[in-house]
Amino acid sequence: MKTGAMKRFGLMMVCVWLTCLGATAQTYRGFVDAAMTFDIPKDFYYFRGEQGFPYDTDVAPVLAFSTTHGVQINRNHYLGIGMEFNKYFSGIYSGEDNEKIGSLPLYAMWRMDFFGRKVTPFFDVRAGYQVAWTKGFYGNINAGMRISLSRRTGLNISIGARMSRYSDSITWIHMYETSYTNSDYQAKVFYNVFGFMLRAGVDF
Known about the structure:
mainly beta; 9 strands; 10% helix; 8-stranded antiparallel β-barrel
């Protein structure tokens, strides 16, 4: 990650946390959940100043685990920060480099619970930056239902969409028809990814 981008993201996370600490009637609340996502990457490259599309992309399944911690400001609004681990089950993101198939986003989260009942709808937004393996913007929007299990614990089930972007480098081998020599070229590939997800977890 570039130093400037890292500093801006860190400042944003600190501001969210300070806002949480300064809120009135605040109560700690944490989340742990798992999600199955089907990502649709759209890739394009820059090579010698030109932009193009190297190859077609397919749907890539992703298994995600996340944990979020923050404060419940009032009955409806929640602010927190969290981390998510993503495991890709396709080499589409990084060619044959299986060691890079994954991402680790850090994010800030805002959530709204509409009613304080045993079964209540909710809506949440997560935005942050992927800091490991693949790097780039990360965003997630979810809508679902919370089922109360006890006074402080609930089951959350939601559907949502997420957006992310990151870059990678690939090597092309150019074969000359008039000789037996090849030339290797490095190209920078950018992925704009949109995915649909089903998420389930608990809050406490």
